[in-house]
Specification:
Number of helices: 4
CATH class: Alpha Beta
CATH topology: TATA-Binding Protein
Number of domains: 1
CATH superfamily: Kinase associated domain 1, KA1
Mean pLDDT: 89
Largest sheet: 5 strands, antiparallel
Oligomer: single chain
Order of helices and strands: HHEHEEEEH
Length: 164
């Protein structure tokens, strides 16, 4: 009996360690464990409590603040479509907004489906445009930073598409 209890405790501890390693790995992969602004505490709190991230000029995350581009709206939308394709996303035009795209992104391991909405809007500087957008998990209350990481990758890929 004592041996059976010891084996059960060992199995439970092993499962807990595997789950903990998976969570820490996801947090690291999604950039939560770094020391970038707004800091580890705020990044961790949002990763554990929020399942949505947004591209916005006033984002607390510098990597989610969009650049402004001296392009016309349609050219930026085309570049955004190319960036999505390079990431393996299937983007489609949003019928209700001619300057918007929608995508469903499938996560790696557990194959969850997350929704991404993107649009082109006027920038603050005259003659410029920028991207606004949101990535939202359909399941769960905390995304371990996956949505913010996804949008940061998109903005980096957009810059690569726009670079000559």
């Amino acid at each position: 009996m004592r041996r059976a209890v010891s084996i059960a405790v060992a199995v439970v501890l092993a499962v807990v360690l595997v789950v903990l390693a998976g969570v820490v790995g996801a947090l690291a992969r999604n950039g939560v464990l770094g020391g970038e602004p707004p800091g580890f505490g705020e990044r961790l709190a949002l990763a554990l409590s929020s399942n949505v991230a947004a591209i916005a000029p006033d984002s607390p995350f510098p990597e989610l603040r969009p650049g402004e581009h001296a392009l016309d709206e349609e050219a930026l939308l085309e570049a955004l479509t190319q960036a999505c394709a390079r990431l393996g996303w299937e983007c489609r035009r949003d019928g209700s907004d001619p300057l918007a795209l929608r995508a469903t992104v499938v996560t790696g391991l557990l194959r969850f489906r997350d929704d991404v909405t993107l649009a082109v809007e006027a920038g603050d500087a005259p003659g410029t445009v920028r991207v606004r957008g949101e990535s939202r998990s359909r399941v769960g209350r905390g995304d371990l930073g996956a949505n913010a990481h996804r949008l940061a990758r998109l903005l980096a890929e957009l810059e690569a598409v726009l670079s000559p």
